[in-house]
Write a structure and sequence with these properties.
Shape: globular
Distance between the termini: 37 Å
Order of helices and strands: EEHEEHEEEHHHHEEH
Oligomer: single chain
């Protein structure tokens, strides 16, 4: 780990969020994630440029995400157009960095790391093409630029897995064999449990994570950014007709 003036230096990482909803809360989550960390870049990918976007977060345009599958598609095939560093740290309004002091160098030894998934206790959920249970994924997390570019570069079709198009499952489960055949690695449970928490599973008990996703269990105490100031709502209504969220 490299520090400068007491701040963690992640010069090869872009902090990124892509959204068309909860935009104000997403920007606040990005700002919170930058406490104590200097990233090489930071970018909000959105259908409009928020008037409250700070100068240290750049804006990149995308068409409005109309639903979750728009998000999944763009994350798989368009995210790479916005990333210019070796890695990206993806955050959402409900999942971001909360303990920068818990960063470990080994997090960047992998092409993908996110929160562990629970044991589904069935024979199909989180099962790859060979039937192997895969319990690390989650959208909030680090990804290498190589992995981000992989779906487009490899021409992977946008196909559902058991009826769902979740981009994390697309990479970490459905197409994992192709990801690994291309020489990329996804973090194991033994490392991911220190990175981020979403579901309250036995493996994470007693561990303080670097990041989180969703306010369940021990995550309940992490910040919730709600309530855009009235003055911002009035300005946006005047500028955009009340469309931005």
């Amino acid at each position: 780990m490299e520090y400068k003036n007491g701040r963690l230096q992640l010069n090869n990482v872009t902090l990124v969020a892509m959204t068309s909803v909860n935009v104000y809360e997403t920007v606040q989550a990005m700002k919170y994630s930058m406490r104590g960390i200097d990233f090489g870049d930071a970018v909000l990918i959105c259908h409009f440029r928020p008037i409250y976007l700070p100068r240290n977060i750049r804006y990149d345009h995308t068409g409005k995400l109309r639903n979750i599958d728009d998000f999944n598609y763009k994350m798989l095939y368009e995210l790479g157009d916005h990333i210019h560093t070796d890695y990206a740290m993806i955050v959402h309004y409900d999942g971001f960095i909360v303990h920068p002091e818990c960063f470990r160098d080994e997090f960047l030894d992998y092409d993908y790391i996110g929160a562990p998934w629970p044991d589904p206790h069935d024979d199909f959920t989180y099962r790859d093409i060979n039937g192997t249970l895969r319990r690390v994924g989650n959208s909030v997390g680090f990804r290498s630029k190589r992995l981000i570019d992989f779906p487009k570069a490899a021409g992977l079709p946008f196909e559902a897995d058991h009826g769902y198009f979740h981009e994390d499952g697309f990479l970490c489960v459905k197409n994992r064999h192709l990801v690994e055949e291309a020489g990329m690695t996804i973090a194991p449970m033994e490392v991911a449990k220190y990175f981020s928490h979403e579901t309250m599973i036995p493996e994470i008990e007693g561990i303080t994570p670097f990041a989180f996703h969703k306010w369940a269990g021990t995550n309940a105490g992490y910040p919730r950014f709600k309530g855009k100031p009235v003055i911002l709502r009035r300005i946006e209504k005047k500028l955009f007709g009340g469309q931005p969220k």
